[in-house]
What does this fold into?
Amino acid sequence: MKFKLIYPRWEKLVGQTIFNLPPHGPVVFAAALPDFVEIDFIDENVQPLDFEDPADFVGISMMLTIQLKRGWEIAHEYQKRGIKVIFGGIATMLHAEESLQHADSIFLGEVEGRLEQVFEDFKQNRLKKVYNYLNQEPLDVSIVGPARRDILTRELYFHKGVQMVDLFHASRGCRFNCYPCAVSFLGGRVFRPRPIEKSIEELETIENNRLFIVDNSLAQDTQWEKDLFKAMIPLKKNWCSHTIEDKPEVLDLAAQAGAWYVYQAIFDTSDYIRKRIQRYHDVGISVEGTILLGMDNQTEDDIKRLIDFLLEINLDLAEFTVLTPFPHTKAHDDLKKEHRIISNDWNDYNAGKVVFKPKHMSPERLQELYHYAWDSFYKDETQEQKMFGLIMKVIEKEMDDGTYQPRRRDLADKSFGRVIQR
Amino acid sequence: MKGQDQFVEEIYHFKGEWGIPSLCGLKIVKKNENAIILVTEFYDINPGTSITNWNTHLAHEICQKHRIDPNRMIFIERTPKTSSTLSFYQETFDRVTFAWDGESLTDPQWERISKAEVIKLMDK
It folds into this structure.
């Protein structure tokens, strides 16, 4: 059976450097497929989709809300050709009712150990409208096997000969409950680390030296964090990740394990934040600040002060987003109650467009401040230049470690599969 | 457990969207001909759907279980203060009104009310 798995394209944020990373959801999904399924994966962000290519069954994997409308459009095209379509992924779970209107079937929940049934049903022409596992206890993550990165067309994830990071996850679920985040709804409120030997086994299969550990927060269990980092040291990988704990013993092990840069939410101009950034820098870990604009406690002056502060603390990179009320977040509940959501067009939900009425300014003013934030932070050095600095840093470390893989000269004039127009 | 105080009489378990096991705090006060139903969101322990997201179904289910006439119900959503210093985690109360067609509740509308108003409403 030929199963075509599609990752729909989305419009990237204006003015930002585009880095297409190899997607994670589809490779994790592929690892759970039964043996009799032959998979053909298309990432529409980096390759064209030909609706005439043969397929028995189509799967559409949607991670982001802004992939929804394109995903639905793709489904309609296949349905016109008499081919059945199933949706899955995070965005499908967040927008399940709506997605159901556009597909033959939707899959809700974690896939491991559950796909055999779906494909058997398909073969027997008894595909169910909904495969709902959200109503069950989250899976025992020890059954999560190594992701199938072999489905990716590798050459498409290079920019000027430099390979993008590979994505990897060491846990599921989250015990935190952050205002704009739906992860606890999607993965459960219980932090579920994968057994460390399983994580290491998977990491050993990844040829790429540079990784992005995509877990929403590694700062969930100090002992587990320390054990994971200790076990990672011999692998000599370099990685970025979301937040890690800033306890000295954790940071020290993280640095030894190859922590390259971490994402850190910066929500105020306090000494707490300043010291935290300094602690990362002290052990040689760079920091990409993630700054959410438009919270109810932010005035226009607060936002301007915050941007000045980011420059003062020598943040290595910054990513600005505007608060976006994704379903199943407290932000959504609050703004809905107060009738402050002004757009329900999912193509606007790219975290760069204001879709709600802020408390202390107009939506238009917040939109201007969002652009002002990007422009101000990258005024003297562009995002690409700052990223280049981080790449140089990792190259130096790889050379010391003897793990450096030179950039692919045959791909030097290409960016994500396309020839660079000079 | 955070948020468990004078406004919670029991932890109420319900099936949220797609049957997800969910929970909230519940206190019901019957006063005159009316029933005041106060539901509390437990952000830190609710594994499923929020009370706000599921209020039409939740209110209907509670009315059925406790033999409450939806026309005589005052439904209040409470979000408790959490340990966060951010202002939007302050305690809030919203009175929710619905359209009732005899079979289901629809079209929720929220109105922010004060704690004092809630206490007055619930005071026997």
User: Anything to note?
Assistant: The two ends of chain A are 43 Å apart (CA to CA). The mean pLDDT of chain A is 95. Residues 354 and 368 of chain A are 10 Å apart (CA to CA).
